[in-house]
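Quick one:
INPUT:
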């Protein structure tokens, strides 16, 4: 199970690492599209787009439906949810670490201020005598 998740994450992050593939996913948010429609905005060959689509398919981020000569792709968000959950885990970890650091610094500052106040009182007490 862990290996599967690791492979899923590896494939998802590999797929998301390329701006062309992210743009294709962004286009597919609006709905399914044929391969030629997905390739249209890019100044690359259809073969290059096909390679990007294969990487997205391997990551499970898109599904391809073939009907005759038409290849229609649609978005599958499940691997994105897995990647998002993984990122959320580390976001919570770092939020907790930063909160602990903040609490430590606040208590240290209060301790230093308390020591200064004690010193001020001691100095003030000596002046009054």
């Amino acid at each position: 199970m862990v290996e599967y998740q690791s492979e899923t994450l590896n494939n998802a992050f590999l797929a998301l690492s390329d701006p062309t593939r992210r743009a294709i996913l962004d286009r597919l948010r609006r709905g399914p599209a044929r391969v030629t429609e997905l390739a249209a905005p890019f100044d690359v060959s259809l073969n290059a787009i096909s390679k990007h689509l294969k990487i997205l398919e391997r990551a499970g981020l898109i599904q391809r439906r073939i009907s005759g000569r038409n290849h229609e792709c649609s978005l599958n968000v499940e691997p994105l949810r897995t990647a998002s959950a993984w990122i959320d885990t580390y976001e919570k970890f770092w939020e907790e670490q930063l909160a602990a650091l903040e609490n430590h610094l606040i208590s240290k500052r209060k301790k230093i201020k308390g020591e200064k106040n004690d010193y001020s009182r001691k100095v003030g007490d000596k002046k009054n005598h």
